[in-house]
Amino acid sequence: xxxxxxxxxxxxxxxxxxxxxxxxxxxxxxxxxxxxxxxxxxxxxxxxxxxxxxxxxxxxxxxxxxxxxxxxxxxxxxxxxxxxxxxxxxxxxxxxxxxxxxxxxxxxxxxxxxxxxxxxxxxxxxxxxxxxxxxxxxxxxxxxxxxxxxxxxxxxxxxxxxxxxxxxxxxxxxxxxxxxxxxxxxxxxxxxxxxxxxxxxxxxxxxxxxxxxxxx
Length: 216
Ligand SMILES: Cc1cc2nc3c(=O)[nH]c(=O)nc-3n(C[C@H](O)[C@H](O)[C@H](O)COP(=O)(O)O)c2cc1C
Fold this sequence. Notes:
The protein is an alpha/beta fold. It has helices spanning 16-31, 51-58, 68-85, 103-113, 154-164, 189-215; strands at 2-7, 36-41, 89-97, 100-101, 130-136, 168-174.
């Protein structure tokens, strides 16, 4: 039994997305003590930004005519895809950056989509597997807030993970992680505490469900 875990936070210490994903992982581990966890830290060890274009252009060139850069990119896509599709379940921990998806997560996704096993339009190798997306945001984009609709990451991640890659996806979200860091948000301390507790509860629940889906 293998869990594939991807972290996209650019920091290793104090990361709230890692902390939420840790709760999911802990529940998974409890149910599967001997399970293997394959980790990919794309925020701190990113896929090279040039790999995607090289892999895309390689598809239009006969194998023996590819440049070394194209060959390396296709091989990298194969390795990244191997790690993902070999797993029985997946856990993605991805923060919101600049109102959009983490560039490191998108670069990784784009590269994987160049692999024929995960290309849009085909039945992906991950179809039907369980997955959890843990996403965190410094501010709040909830209905009725001044920046409602400014989170352009979560819906895109859902489209890719749930619709393109066809994971059986559960999502846990935590907002206001910058409360306590940005003094302008001090008025939201109580609300943020509640959101944190609720996200932690949901993370544990999704972790148990993830483990349960595979035991069943
Ligand atoms: C460069 C940068 C840009 C960010 N942009 C946003 C943003 O647009 N909206 C938001 O709500 N939070 C934003 N944040 C805050 C992060 O989403 C928040 O700190 C989150 O907890 C980071 O994930 P981590 O704790 O796992 O590292 C940004 C943080 C950084 C470092």
